[in-house]
Design goal:
alpha/beta, Rossmann fold, 9 helices, globular
């Protein structure tokens, strides 16, 4: 049974995302990922109002008139949300936890996908698969995913991105779009090869949820910090800001380098900041690349 607190959170998210459906987010989402849900049907002559992205320039040159590729929409597009539930997601320097932003992102994408009649599935992972909800359609199914977002208590605190990617690769879901929402803190060498395979299997999008201090750690002297995944306690001298900030920045640069190497989209979202505008901008950028 869903407790009252979870019900309240889901209700607030439904109201919030219903407003989003009245914005350009839903249409931008559909256009940004149109290519993964279309199947080629035939060539025909261009007509006013046709999408210029589908002009076949080779055929147009041969036939001396503008020809366009006509597609039929496949209704079996699948959206998979891979959601990091490891202990590092409960860190934040803000009032809002990283985990809360992850939940909002996942909820918004679930509702938008459902509105577009796409199947939605959810993988919750730590250093292993905590829960897998197979893709399906409908409000009841989306409600099940939302319940898991707020109610799931992971068995492990640790993170293993490679295990999550290995599971995704094993699914072999045709025409699937994968949104992997995480802080992406892990050993790149362990997951790089699997990330490459996943990007070939799916239309793969990495969503990196960051905290302000990962951009710049404030100088507050010596502080005691606890690794939420291991429980180890460390003394951190923030007076050595250059050293700390260099480490954090190099980690983010290395993460982005891996994504750029395999031509995978990576969207940064920051705890404590509204994320819808960034999502819309991201979808716009994907649309422009398809033109």
């Amino acid at each position: 049974m869903i407790n009252q607190e979870v019900r309240s959170k889901i209700k607030r998210l439904k109201i919030y995302t219903r407003r989003l459906m009245q914005s350009s987010l839903a249409g931008d989402y559909s256009s940004a990922f149109k290519g993964s849900g279309l199947e080629f049907d035939q060539l025909r002559e261009y007509q006013y109002g046709d999408d210029v992205r589908f002009i076949d320039w080779n055929s147009s040159a041969k036939m001396n008139k503008i020809m366009i590729k006509q597609f039929v929409e496949e209704r079996d597009r699948t959206i998979i949300l891979a959601i990091d539930v490891s202990a590092s997601s409960f860190y934040s320097s803000q009032k809002e936890l990283r985990q809360e932003l992850i939940a909002q992102i996942a909820a918004a994408l679930s509702f938008v996908a459902s509105e577009n009649k796409d199947k939605v599935g959810a993988l919750f992972f730590s250093d292993g698969v905590e829960q897998w909800i197979a893709p399906a359609r409908g409000n009841v199914h989306v409600g099940r995913i939302l319940e898991a977002i707020f109610s799931l208590r992971p068995q492990s605190k640790k993170t293993n991105l490679a295990e999550a990617l290995r599971f995704l690769v094993s699914l072999k879901k045709r025409n699937a779009v994968v949104f992997m929402i995480s802080d992406w803190i892990g050993v790149a060498d362990e997951y790089t090869k699997l990330l490459k395979v996943a990007s070939c299997e799916y239309d793969f999008v990495g969503m990196r949820v960051l905290d302000h201090v990962e951009h710049r750690m404030p100088n507050v002297g010596i502080i005691e910090v606890i690794d939420p995944e291991t429980g180890n306690v460390y003394a951190l001298n923030t007076a050595r800001a250059n050293t700390v900030n260099t480490f954090l920045q190099l980690r983010m640069i290395e993460q982005r380098r891996v994504f750029e190497k395999y031509k995978i989209d990576l969207l940064d979202l920051v705890v404590g900041q509204p994320f819808i505008h960034q999502l819309i901008t991201f979808f716009h950028q994907r649309i422009r690349r398809q033109i």
